[in-house]
Amino acid sequence: MTAYDAIVLAGGAAKRLGGADKPAVRVGGRPLLDRVLAACPDAGTTVVVGDRRPTARAVTWAREVPAGGGPLAALGAGVRHTSAERVLVLSADLPFLGADTVAALLAASAREGVEGALCSDEDGRDQPLVAVYRGEPLRRELACLAAEHGGLAGLPLRLLTRELTLCRVAAGPLASFDCDTWEDIASARARIREHGTVLDEWITAVKEELGIDLDVDTGLLLDLARDAAHGVARPAAPLTTFLVGYAAAKASGEGGGPEAVAEAARRATALALRWADENGTP
Questions:
Q1: Is there a single domain that holds both residue 218 and residue 157?
Q2: 164 Cβ partners below 8 Å, 6+ apart?
């Protein structure tokens, strides 16, 4: 992964949300801001431009002057705290942004002859707040704009992007989905409950809530829960999966590990199957 810093713009009046604190609005039980921060955990420095609030991981705080001065002023405030060759720039209202999109932007920004890469949505519209910019050209153009206009407050982002040589990365259908209205929030909340994604969303939320950084085979655990429920009794499913986690942590030290979980799950599954085989056996 290319070294990079990240700037997340979390200010703004959120007028279409009735002035609500948009970065703190929850989707899938997690604030929008934390969902965005989860997409760039390996950033060298992560700067959040906006009012201070609790976050799932440590960040550097900054504020544009004047407050509410718009995205370019916020970007100018955030970039002062960065030093990496590349700067990831995101808005704080992207519930479905993933690390895969960040990686694609970083890779595209490394191409020869470009000064950055930004997402292009399904309709071909540029998304300058889902982008990676090379640090030196970004700082140069921000300084030029500030000098030309007497500051950055109130200036549109297109004044920056039109001066940079940027390539486009076609985002997935949801990567650049942002939440500007309560209808958008409702849509995002409904999407994460869809059958194909709800388990991944739930497991991610639980791991973040509990401070667990562990990738395990959830299919293996679900199979174990099924076998315990069918072969023993329905209440055995949650109790067995809890005991597997406890055994894995005990076996491999604090926090456990994916291999320990898999081994404990295999042994518990074998026991559940042996238990089931005894049904009706004299």
A1: no
A2: 115, 116, 133, 137, 138, 141
Residues 143 and 264 in one domain: no
Beta-bridged to residue 26, according to DSSP, are 31
C-alpha pair distances (Å), 221 with each of 20, 179, 197, 239, 253: 39, 34, 17, 12, 20
Length of the chain: 282
In a domain, 74, yes or no: yes
Q: In terms of domains, do 228 and 145 share one?
A: no
Amino acid at 240: T
b/e per residue 15-25 (b: at least 16 CB within 10 A):
eebeeeebbeb
| 229 and 269 housed in the same domain | yes
Is there a domain that residue 202 lies in? Answer: no
Please write the tens of the pLDDT for every residue from 254-282. 555 778 888 888 888 888 887 777 765 44
Q: Classify 192 as helix, strand or coil.
A: coil
Q: Are residues 269 and 134 in the same domain?
A: no
Q: Per residue in 75-98, pLDDT tens? A: 999 999 999 999 999 999 999 999
